[in-house]
């Protein structure tokens, strides 16, 4: 059962069957959990027994009781929990794609996706076509997680072409006859500038696609379209703009540096790994091809394992972790800046950030400065590594204007409990960057009580507006801090 805000994998209602229509009407009339927000609750199973006129109310009551203890998909124990939740549908699709690449998509909460098709490629195609209007956001986040080329390899050129055509249809992209550009429209020079900004975020992905056989014209066209959709949604129906944009995009891609033959999306901070057929799990999923509920053949598993290269930074469930020396580590005296992330979540400012074209970390940097946060070499180096928007006059102005809008909201929300000043931000922290993860380590004794009472010290987890997973660690032993551990390894 799927009731927009709550999805129940299996529900058994035991009552008089001749009142089926009345029972369905009763279910529709109930008040289900999560109707007032974007959260999507997924319940494993509900069993209800009683008179038919009471079944609907009892089922809704049980659902409300179960969702009170729901676990977010990113939290430990989500795989065995009876109820999990996603902040929105887009987040659900992103997490499924990441699990598909890790080959950990057999969990109970992914069964509806698995049943939708018989192969990983068909599953992805069906999922993307069901979420066409959210696809730009989904693909942008997956690109930031550095797994876009792997998904393209699973999809294949034909499926990419079909998805691109569907997007063109709903946006009317490139469908308007050639015409003269109206006053105020973008010139060719402006389009070129904008494509360069976009390419700064997609450069690694496009470099990997450029030397890959799957990077045929539909793939490049798809990337160009979703980038235009994110940047200029109001100009998608302008045929002249679409031609200028795509031509400028292809010209810029032509100049993208081709990576080495053995490089895929690997960077110096996270080596790539290729999983072979020998790594296919045995015993537990050995007879999976005979399971009518999953319908994923063994051959499909082999294709997924043999053809998909997955960065080790995505394999958080693996027992083999990336060596610490392959991470970027920063030490700062102003670790309090990270608690602005939860403050923005509590005040629901992230929608404004996503709708703007401002780099989130650039905005956080401006807000922290306005609130009195100092700066040292470690924090400066970390923030510079996160900025995806060039520090041009226009980008800095937009970030400053949005910071001036959101900072008073944050101050007002917490003014009775917190004093936003230099002392608040003065908090020693070790920052470990292993994309898409950012781990921040604090000494447990340094966390202020008001922070804990307000819940600002909890793990933000996966944040689509940042395109990263943020985790806080509170240690009692200084030797557990990553920088100290690194010094022990390299005295």
Main traits of this protein?
alpha/beta, 4-stranded mixed beta sheet, disordered C terminus, 20 helices, 12% strand, 3 domains, globular, 491 residues
Overview of this structure, please?
- Strand 10 (461-463) and strand 11 (468-475) form a beta hairpin.
- Helices cover 46% and strands 12% of the residues.
- 35% of the residues are buried.
- It folds into three domains: 6-86, no CATH class; 117-319, no CATH class; 324-489, no CATH class.
- The radius of gyration is 24 Å and the shape is globular.
- By secondary structure, the protein is α/β, with parallel strands linked by helices.
- Mean pLDDT is 70; it is low at 176-187, 258-326 and 486-491.
- The protein has a five-stranded mixed beta sheet, with helices on one face. A four-stranded mixed beta sheet has the order 1-2-4-3. Strands 5-6 form a two-stranded antiparallel ribbon.
Helix and strand topology:
Blueprint: E1 6-14, H1 20-29, E2 40-49, H2 52-67, E3 71-72, E4 83-86, H3 89-102, H4 111-115, H5 120-130, H6 135-144, H7 148-155, H8 157-171, H9 188-210, H10 217-231, H11 239-254, E5 272-274, H12 298-307, E6 309-311, E7 328-332, H13 339-346, H14 350-355, H15 360-370, H16 377-386, H17 393-414, H18 422-425, E8 429-434, E9 437-443, H19 449-454, E10 461-463, E11 468-475, H20 482-489
Parallel strand pairs: 1-2, 3-4, 9-11
Antiparallel strand pairs: 2-4, 5-6, 7-8, 8-9, 10-11
Helix pairs in contact: 1-2, 3-6, 5-8, 6-10, 8-10, 9-11, 10-11, 15-17
